[in-house]
Structure formats: C-alpha cells, structure tokens
Amino acid sequence: MSVVIKGRSTGATTVELVHESGTVVRTVAPKDNGGDGSAFSPTDLCAASLGACGCTIMGMFAARHGYPVTGIEFELTKDMSPPPRKIARISIAFKIAGAISDADFDKLVAAGKACPVRLTLGANVEIVERYERS
C-alpha cells in the first residue's frame, strides 16, 4: 500500500507536510541546528513515530485478542549524535493500563517490539525500552 505525503518549505528552517488525508504537520529545525525549536523537528517526528507505532500495534493486538487494555502511553527521549547529525538513541517507556495476565502482557510487548517503525530503524538507532504496567 502506498501513501502520498507532500511537503514544502515555508521558511529557511520550516516545512509543511500534507498527508493525503489532508492532515497538516509543520516542522521546524531544533535550536541546536539553527531553528527556534517551536515545533517538532523532522528527527523528533521520526522518534515520536516509534512510540506512536508501538502504541498502535499493541492497541490493535490487544483489541484483536480481547485483552482488557484500557490505555497505552509512552514517554521518550531522543539523543542526537555529534556530526554527522543523526538520531543516536531513543529511550522509550511504555505504560500499559489494564488487568492483563503476565503471559498476555508478554505477548503484547512482543507485538510492540515488532512494530514497522522499530523494524525500519533496525540497527541504525540504539533503542532503549521499558514496558510497564500502569
């Protein structure tokens, strides 16, 4: 399946992205790279995609298997490498709410670890993760 996303520069450090659904996302360069840090940077979106993907995959897995998950949250920290700039590490903690058995929790975590964004990042980015019950 293909998805079309269009983008255009709106200034020296800003970009507007338009998803085929019409949803608009704006990015700005971070303070440490010449921007003002007033919105997500492109690498922020990349890192946030890991959390969003994990939440989505675990939520779908829980629904498909009838697990009583009542919510999934995450918090992450993105660390950049020195030049050449790239994402070096993403530390992420998922908090999963619901009365779920230990065995089902383990299956849910395995599903989350198999999200497409994580598989895409592969060995290029160190991923430090925690999965907790909330």
Report strand %: 35-45%
**Euclidean distance between termini CA atoms:** 35 Å
> Describe the biggest sheet?
3 strands, antiparallel
The radius of gyration is 17 Å
Give me the count of strands. 6
Rounded mean pLDDT score: 97
The SS-based structural class is alpha+beta
- Percent helix among the residues? 25-40%
Q: How many helices in DSSP terms?
A: 3
Give the helices and strands as they follow along the chain.
EEEHEEHHE
Strand order in the largest sheet: 1-2-3
Q: Overall 3D geometry? A: globular
Contiguous low-pLDDT stretches (5 residues minimum) are: none
What are the key terms here?
3-stranded mixed sheet; 6 strands; 3-stranded antiparallel sheet; alpha+beta; 36% strand; 134 residues
Short description:
By secondary structure, this protein is of the alpha+beta class.
What does this protein look like?
The protein has 134 residues and is α+β, with helices and mostly antiparallel strands. Helices cover 31% and strands 36% of the residues. It has 3 helices and 6 strands, in the order βββαββααβ. It has helices at 42-65, 102-113, 116-121, and strands at 5-9, 14-19, 24-28, 69-80, 87-98, 126-133. The strands form 2 sheets. A 3-stranded antiparallel sheet has the order 1-2-3, with no helix packed on it. Strands 4-5-6 form a 3-stranded mixed sheet, with helices on one face. A hairpin with a 4-residue loop joins β1 (5-9) and β2 (14-19). α1 (42-65) runs antiparallel to α2 (102-113). The radius of gyration is 17 Å and the shape is globular. The termini are far apart.
